[in-house]
Hints:
By secondary structure, the chain is α+β, with helices and mostly antiparallel strands.
Amino acid sequence: MEETIEINYSYKFQDKLQIDxxxxxxxxxxxxxxTASEEPPLWAELCFNRCNVCPLDPEKFKHCxxxxxxxxxxxxxxxxxxxxxxxxxxTTRERTYSKTVPVQEGLSALTGVIMVTSGCPVMERLKPxxxxxxxxxxxxxxxxxxxxxxxxxxxxxNRLGMSADWDISGLEAIYxxxxxxxxSFARRLLAAAEKDANVNALVNLDCLAxxxxxxxxxxxxxxxxxxxxxxxx
Length: 233
């Protein structure tokens, strides 16, 4: 097994500008591997617009781990408006994805990966989805991946003799906390850039987080016929 997982995000603009963001994850833990190159700015401090659900101790953590890792992204796109168009090319070991989208949509996928792999205890609950990262996923695709991830987690809990939530009732609580992080983090980003690309990328993620728990139930109902062969056993 490879020691690391590599994901590269490349943003190409009509004026020939290209911005690249290589992401390296530990294959065992899916944690983001990075080296801080400079002192994080004020908006990255833990107590700056701190999330209501943040469990980190300010005595031990001076900075928000997500903010520290997003500083290079925020700086690179602070002068972009969310509606500007870019071709986003995402390269993984298995395949390459490409789509021409508004900057805010292209940034949402990258921001989402960084947020769940940076060490935030709230966002880490979504970390397993990164292993099979799907850029530009539809709402239905995201809901299916979320349900699958959650049920695999319950299988592990069951094997360890822990209580398991087979009816996925706990998903809504997880995404309520995720929504709180998204909203609080948007306030950080407002202080970090004059233009709106970074903030609206997070707004996109927040809208998705709010819709997913409801879409999950609808999707389970819609897809029941797909599993007729299994249900007939």
